[in-house]
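Sequence only, no structure available. Ideas?
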Amino acid sequence: MGVLLLLQMVCALIVPFILMDALVKGYPAFLETAALSADRIRSGVLLAFVGLGLTVAIGVWMHPLLAGYSKRAALWFVAVCLISAGLDAVHNASVMSMLAVGERFASAGGADGAIHQAWAAVAGSMRRSVHIIQLFGIAGWIVTFYVSLWRFRLVPRLLAALGSIGITLQFTGVSAMMFLGYPVMTYLAIPLAPIHAATAIWLIVKGFSNLPDETEAARSES
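Reply:
I predicted one. Tokens follow.
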């Protein structure tokens, strides 16, 4: 699980957004930057698909463990991971739509600029809207993960509490601010990355604690 968390962090939460940065930096006037970074943007989308697969893998991997305590908690965690992965896929599609506009604009040599600008405004607004909802999905599975770690004492409670605080700060400073139309407080999102990495490393070194015994797991499955 620790390895999955680290891989998912790289492939879904960090590197794809760096590779897609040409669209963000150029927004809303991204037509000139998108086509120049087409290969980089496509690489980011492909990596994001790997990342959403890892999100699903985390949900599936955690299911038998959580089911030893609560079948409802286990199913809920799988559900929020699937929802988050689905929103990631929709976001990838919106990124490809923005790239398509930029490439069409580049191939037209700047002709029909007004039409392409209108198309770009629609595609860019759609991606931003989808990205906000995507952030809600990401926050959903991460907070469920840390609440489960706390509730069932699967890691030291201080670590689980820090994870819950980290995702709450990220949601408050970034996701909620974007949704409400206020300026993003990026600094509130910074603590989550080292906390998440620390949790992954803890699981690699120590593993889960307070595991349910076979009798309890069998009773939960019945």
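DSSP finds nine helices and no strands in the chain.
Hope that gets you unstuck.
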